[in-house]
């Protein structure tokens, strides 16, 4: 989700690979006794610190719940959060430390596409299970994937597909993309085009902007002049907040629907109701799901009890899901042995916080629902009530890229 | 590009000029402090961010946007006075990199301080009600608030020009910038002049932050890109030249606008390309005096 140089990611990957191949490599004996240790690298400092802290809090809920219900035959679980500073190199180093020095049993975490690929390179080489909780298409692909790789989060293909199917049929087919010029943006555009092709969408322009742009005023007159039905703004964090605010100022909402494939709770809170009013987008979780889904209600209540009445964010909830699936798999396997836990994970059919989910066998992608939400500025129950859930696309393997397309055998 | 009509091109150029006005606003505080004190203020972006947060703080206590327009530059400028008096002053005469490194570190501390006080998540900042919406400018609709920012920038520039060129104090400041030693010999307390200039420059940076808040919201990191943009404008215009900052700001705005129309992904690079070209032709910038850095 954030910009990092390809070179850095490659360097991190190379460092991981070199360490793994080193003749001095000490065979890591992960404890089969004592506490179950879960390493949790997330960007605890920097622009996404609030989001990362929510991930940690939600993961703490999963840990507490596991321990209170007896652990694994009395073995308790421990969470070891580390700051990856949103940097692939840093994340690879922290992950290596967690594995080598802290002897963690599993790694869960990350909040950015490039960071999770760097972590995955390390865990792959060290044969440690990694459950990634942020969006990426590449992590599913055979070239990056390994049997130790699980992906609890949605990926851009699933998200863009669900959002596209919803908006193209309702708001029109003439589309302008405003895209942050990096892997995440390109993956999303590809996802929208795949979903839109059978519906006959017409792409009027795909405007790419550099990451970290603070002013979009020079892009908006052209978008206005193209008169699309839909403006799909594919950017993230502050770029997204500024886009929405300035598009509102320029009056774009009067003539087109604005769509954000990933519409996050924290972004909406940071930018305020005015900027996001009426914007439609996709998300993996929104706390108001509790109105219809009992497991969401149970999770929210536990979160509120542990964290002074606060609600979990979308990425936060993934922190819970990512840790809980691993701990439940340990119970199912009756062990923390990596191969046994992998088998147990693959057999899980779970509903822990958002309705039914399972990991697809070929790429360990969690097949799950996608929520379509619309930002609101009126009729808010309280300050946390920022979206209406307008549609839920139920879990369906047909909405994922096929195993063959990703390069997997079966 | 089939829809490229005259109106769009005209509106695009206007958007460029409007953006240029914002760049000018960002750059003048930096340019003023450099021109008068030869201090490269790397905390300029942090003062900008501080101004925006001061606005948030005041708004939460019921102050109107208009009251904040007066109060914020005073608050940020007062902080700037303290910084000059206790941090920058001991470093005068030690070479240009000393205050540069100091302000670089100060910026980190200010950003962390704001994170501790206001949290790491950004905060919303609504456009004042009377300036919301768009206004018809003949070639299309343009956000009213952006028109207001152009006006505000012009007013600040006019005020600054009158102060520097038409008042006794301004005369002393300009003389102090040219030859501090002679000014000191004439019985003027130069350190007080420098204190005032630093307060003025940081106050304008804070005001720019407040004016930018309704355009982009408020976050602890908002000063980062501003520093880079303000530097480009200052360098293109000539370090220390106010006229240069104005011309360069508008030039950068129009460059961004035209690149955005044809190759939007190059918009960010284009301003650095502009800077490189200008520096190749005129190393001191468009209106700069040569040798200011030596």
UniProtKB/TrEMBL annotation, chain A:
<feature type="signal peptide">
    <location>
        <begin position="1"/>
        <end position="20"/>
    </location>
</feature>
<dbReference type="InterPro" id="IPR051010">
    <property type="entry name" value="BCAA_transport"/>
</dbReference>
<dbReference type="Pfam" id="PF13458">
    <property type="entry name" value="Peripla_BP_6"/>
</dbReference>
<comment type="similarity">
    <text>Belongs to the leucine-binding protein family.</text>
</comment>
<keyword id="KW-0732">Signal</keyword>
<feature type="domain" description="Leucine-binding protein">
    <location>
        <begin position="35"/>
        <end position="376"/>
    </location>
</feature>
<protein>
    <submittedName>
        <fullName>ABC transporter substrate-binding protein</fullName>
    </submittedName>
</protein>
<dbReference type="InterPro" id="IPR006311">
    <property type="entry name" value="TAT_signal"/>
</dbReference>
<dbReference type="InterPro" id="IPR028081">
    <property type="entry name" value="Leu-bd"/>
</dbReference>
<dbReference type="InterPro" id="IPR028082">
    <property type="entry name" value="Peripla_BP_I"/>
</dbReference>
<keyword id="KW-0029">Amino-acid transport</keyword>
<keyword id="KW-0813">Transport</keyword>
Automatic annotation (TrEMBL), chain B:
<protein>
    <submittedName>
        <fullName>Branched-chain amino acid ABC transporter permease</fullName>
    </submittedName>
</protein>
<feature type="transmembrane region" description="Helical">
    <location>
        <begin position="235"/>
        <end position="262"/>
    </location>
</feature>
<feature type="transmembrane region" description="Helical">
    <location>
        <begin position="42"/>
        <end position="60"/>
    </location>
</feature>
<feature type="transmembrane region" description="Helical">
    <location>
        <begin position="12"/>
        <end position="35"/>
    </location>
</feature>
<dbReference type="Pfam" id="PF02653">
    <property type="entry name" value="BPD_transp_2"/>
</dbReference>
<feature type="transmembrane region" description="Helical">
    <location>
        <begin position="269"/>
        <end position="287"/>
    </location>
</feature>
<dbReference type="InterPro" id="IPR001851">
    <property type="entry name" value="ABC_transp_permease"/>
</dbReference>
<keyword id="KW-0029">Amino-acid transport</keyword>
<feature type="transmembrane region" description="Helical">
    <location>
        <begin position="145"/>
        <end position="164"/>
    </location>
</feature>
<keyword id="KW-1003">Cell membrane</keyword>
<feature type="transmembrane region" description="Helical">
    <location>
        <begin position="100"/>
        <end position="125"/>
    </location>
</feature>
<keyword id="KW-0812">Transmembrane</keyword>
<feature type="transmembrane region" description="Helical">
    <location>
        <begin position="66"/>
        <end position="88"/>
    </location>
</feature>
<keyword id="KW-0472">Membrane</keyword>
<keyword id="KW-1133">Transmembrane helix</keyword>
<comment type="similarity">
    <text>Belongs to the binding-protein-dependent transport system permease family. LivHM subfamily.</text>
</comment>
<dbReference type="InterPro" id="IPR052157">
    <property type="entry name" value="BCAA_transport_permease"/>
</dbReference>
<keyword id="KW-0813">Transport</keyword>
<feature type="transmembrane region" description="Helical">
    <location>
        <begin position="193"/>
        <end position="215"/>
    </location>
</feature>
């Amino acid at each position: 989700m954030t910009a990092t140089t390809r070179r850095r990611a490659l360097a991190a990957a190379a460092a991981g690979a070199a360490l793994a191949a080193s003749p001095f490599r000490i065979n890591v004996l992960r404890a089969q006794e004592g506490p179950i240790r879960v390493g949790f690298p997330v960007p605890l400092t920097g622009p996404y610190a609030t989001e990362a802290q929510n991930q940690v809090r939600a993961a703490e809920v999963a840990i507490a719940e596991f321990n209170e219900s007896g652990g694994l035959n009395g073995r308790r679980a421990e969470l070891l959060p580390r700051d990856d500073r949103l940097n692939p190199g840093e994340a690879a180093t922290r992950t290596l430390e967690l594995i080598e020095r802290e002897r963690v049993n599993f790694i869960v975490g990350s909040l950015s596409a490039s960071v999770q690929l760097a972590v995955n390179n390390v865990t792959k080489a060290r044969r440690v299970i990694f459950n990634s909780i942020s969006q990426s298409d590449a992590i599913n692909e055979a070239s990056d994937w390994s049997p130790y790789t699980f992906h609890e989060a949605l990926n851009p293909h699933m998200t863009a597909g669900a959002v596209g199917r919803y908006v193209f049929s309702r708001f029109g087919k003439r589309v302008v993309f405003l895209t942050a010029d990096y892997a995440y943006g390109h993956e999303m555009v590809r996802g929208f085009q795949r979903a839109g092709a059978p519906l006959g969408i017409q792409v009027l322009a795909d405007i790419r902007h550099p990451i970290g742009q603070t002013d979009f005023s020079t892009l908006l007159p052209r978008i206005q002049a193209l008169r699309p039905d839909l403006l799909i703004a594919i950017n993230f964090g502050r770029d997204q907040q500024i886009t929405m605010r300035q598009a509102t100022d320029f009056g774009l909402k009067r003539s087109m629907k604005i769509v954000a494939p990933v519409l996050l709770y924290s972004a909406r809170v940071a930018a305020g109701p005015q900027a996001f009013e009426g914007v439609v987008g996709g998300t993996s979780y929104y706390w108001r799901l509790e109105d219809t889904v009992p497991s969401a209600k149970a999770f929210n209540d536990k979160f509120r009890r542990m964290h002074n009445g606060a609600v979990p964010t979308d990425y936060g909830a993934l922190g819970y899901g990512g840790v809980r699936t691993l701990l439940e798999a340990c119970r199912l396997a009756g062990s923390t042995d990596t191969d046994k836990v992998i088998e147990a994970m693959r057999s899980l059919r779970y509903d822990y916080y958002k309705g039914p989910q399972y990991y697809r066998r070929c790429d360990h992608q969690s097949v799950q629902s996608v929520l379509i939400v619309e930002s609101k500025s009126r009729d808010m129950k309280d300050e946390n009530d920022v979206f209406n859930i307008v549609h839920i696309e139920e879990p369906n393997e047909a909405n994922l890229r096929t195993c063959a397309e990703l390069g997997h055998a079966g | 590009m089939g829809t490229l009509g005259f109106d769009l091109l005209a509106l695009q150029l206007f958007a460029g000029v409007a953006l240029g006005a914002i760049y000018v606003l960002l750059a003048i505080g930096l340019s003023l402090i450099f021109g008068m004190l030869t201090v490269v203020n790397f905390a300029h972006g942090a003062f900008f961010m501080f101004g925006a947060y001061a606005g948030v703080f005041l708004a939460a206590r019921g102050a109107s946007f208009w009251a904040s327009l007066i109060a914020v530059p005073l608050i940020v400028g007062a902080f700037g006075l303290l910084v000059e008096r206790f941090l920058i002053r001991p470093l005068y005469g030690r070479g240009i990199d000393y205050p540069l490194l100091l302000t670089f570190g100060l910026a980190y501390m200010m950003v962390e301080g704001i994170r501790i006080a206001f949290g790491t998540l950004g905060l919303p900042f609504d456009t004042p009600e009377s300036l919301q919406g768009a206004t018809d400018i003949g070639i299309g609709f343009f956000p009213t608030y952006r028109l207001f920012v152009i006006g505000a920038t012009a007013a600040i520039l006019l005020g600054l020009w009158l102060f520097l060129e038409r008042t006794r104090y301004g005369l002393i400041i300009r003389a102090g910038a040219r030859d501090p030693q002679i000014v000191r010999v004439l019985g003027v307390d130069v350190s007080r002049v420098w204190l005032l200039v630093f307060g003025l420059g940081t106050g304008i940076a804070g005001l720019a932050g407040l004016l930018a808040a309704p355009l982009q919201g408020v976050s602890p990191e908002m000063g980062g890109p501003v520093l880079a943009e303000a530097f480009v404008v200052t360098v293109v215009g000539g370090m220390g030249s106010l006229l240069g900052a104005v011309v360069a700001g508008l030039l950068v705005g129009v460059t961004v606008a035209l690149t955005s129309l044809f190759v939007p992904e190059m918009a960010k690079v284009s301003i650095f390309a502009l800077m490189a070209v200008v520096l190749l032709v005129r190393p001191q910038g468009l209106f700069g005096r040569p040798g200011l850095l030596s």
